[in-house]
Amino acid sequence: MLEKAQQLKEQFVEKVNAATASAELEQLRIEFLGKKGPISSLMAELRNVPNEQKKEAGQIINEVKQFIEVTITAKKEELQKIEEQKLIDSAEDYDVTFPIDEDKGSYHPITLIQREVEDIFASMGFAIEDYDEIVDDYHCFEALNIPKHHPARDMQDTYYLSTNQLLKTHTSAAQNAIYIKYKNDLEAGKPIRAIFPGRCFRNEKIDACHENTFFQMEGVMVDKDISISNLIYFMKTMLSEVFQRDITVRLRPGFFPFVEPGFELDIQCAICGGKGCPSCKDSGWLELCPCGMIHPNVLSAAGIDPEEYTGFAFGLGLTRLAMMRYGVKDIRVFNSCSLKSLSQFENKTFVEPEKEVK
Ligand code: PHE
After folding, report:
1. More confident site: 256 or 355
2. Do 273 and 157 lie in a common domain?
């Protein structure tokens, strides 16, 4: 028995030393420790060992078994580390100048629509800014005239991190930083004109038109004598460019603590043509672009004198816009990772509303 156990150990050591990939070790584990393996048969043979030697023989087999287990685990870790390193090293060999095979992939519809809207605003002199997805309470709420415990926070429940930070609920979270960045230019006589697209997160009940992860594009303009007419002009220009046709919009009062007055700009649902469908919650309208005149407290928070300067802000629902533009009936498609659904938009132009067939 002792001899057999010793032989087994040697056999194992030989094999384990020869192993070069972590996957081989799983094979070794099955081979040596599996139900039909040599350890099991040694255990079975214990029956035939005389009683006085049983204890010692059992201990020896157990020692070998433990040795095999521990060695396999250690060797596996060692090989996995080497494999990871190889992977990292090979990534460095990635050639960024290698020509892209255009047929291999496509842009996500949100990226397509984002670039299109960016181009439109860039042509009107707007800077395109980027901002964090993880923000603090001050930027997401307090700097926007939403103090702690304000009921407006209920509409924007989100995911809080243990670091006292949160996933931003709206692109408005960047407003304060943008005003501060361009404040000197403003004082030098150059209006602030910026758009900042971004991914936003909310604790939402998910359905055909609500997602917990979605995209917005914020836009702001600040100068002397900016009025609601400027806001309406920019919104109309942008929408007619995106849809390349007249689309029906309506403006209704809307409440957001960081604008005064505030509006909801709705567009007629392009999926059903205003008749009502699940994508527009049967209303025929889709809230596309909440907007308004920047609240004086928000300008003051960034050190801009609201007596001297005024401005407008809007929060365009990029995901919604993509739905309308491409006739996507269910918002969940965007985060679905379904290449079949997502790869069909690149060359697609806007969708005409469904016509009733008589
Ligand atoms: N941030 C607001 C929201 O996501 C939208 C908004 C932006 C409203 C700018 C007014 C002005 O609900």
Report:
1. 256
2. yes
Percent pLDDT > 90 in the chain is 61
Element (H, E) at 8: helix 2-18
Q: 125 and 77 in one domain?
A: no
pLDDT at 94: 67
pLDDT surpasses 60 at 235: yes
For residues 148 and 61, state if they share a domain.
no
CA distance 7 to 323: 69
* Residue 291 in contact with ligand 1 by CB distance below 6 A: yes
First-residue to last-residue Cα distance in the chain? 90
To test ligand 1's pocket by mutation, which of 154, 158, 172, 321 has the most ligand atoms within 8 angstroms of CB?
172
Ligand 1 binding pocket includes 256 (Cβ within 6 Å): yes
Average confidence (pLDDT) over 201-220 = 94
Q: In ligand 1, which atom is closest to the CA atom of 314?
A: 9
Query: Is residue 350 situated within a structural domain?
Result: no
Q: Are residues 60 and 160 in the same domain?
A: no
- What gap in Å lies between CA 286 and CA 270, rounded to an integer? 9
Residues 82 and 171 in one domain: no
